[in-house]
Write a structure and sequence with these properties.
Oligomer: single chain
Strand order of the largest sheet: 1-2-3-6-5-4
Largest sheet: 6 strands, antiparallel, barrel
Number of helices: 1
Structural class: mainly beta
Shape: globular
Low-confidence stretches: none
Mean pLDDT: 87
């Protein structure tokens, strides 16, 4: 697989039974470091809640239609916050 383009959901869990979920379109491509991903919120109405949660903790689960998930860190990409980049979550600090 060179790239995946499609819909997914970003889930932010408050606790084990309560989550905020927003639909996104994502482009995931392979890279030397593993993979790179960018995305955009499908509904602009979700932007304010998404930004608040991202500021509290940028760790989300990227969920696909088959319910498979990848833990990701969300980074804002554009000025209004609707576009973003994703990195696979790692428990150790990243060097930027």
């Amino acid at each position: 697989m060179d790239a995946y383009r499609g819909s997914a959901w970003l889930d932010w869990w408050t606790n084990s039974s309560l989550r905020f979920s927003t639909e996104v379109t994502v482009v995931i491509s392979t890279s030397e470091a593993g993979w790179e991903a960018t995305g955009r919120l499908v509904e602009d109405d979700d932007l304010q809640g998404f930004e608040i949660l991202r500021d509290l903790d940028p760790l989300f689960s990227l969920r696909f239609a088959d319910d498979s998930t990848i833990p990701v860190t969300v980074f804002s990409l554009d000025n209004n916050g609707a576009g973003f980049t994703l990195r696979e979550y790692r428990d150790e600090p990243e060097d930027d």
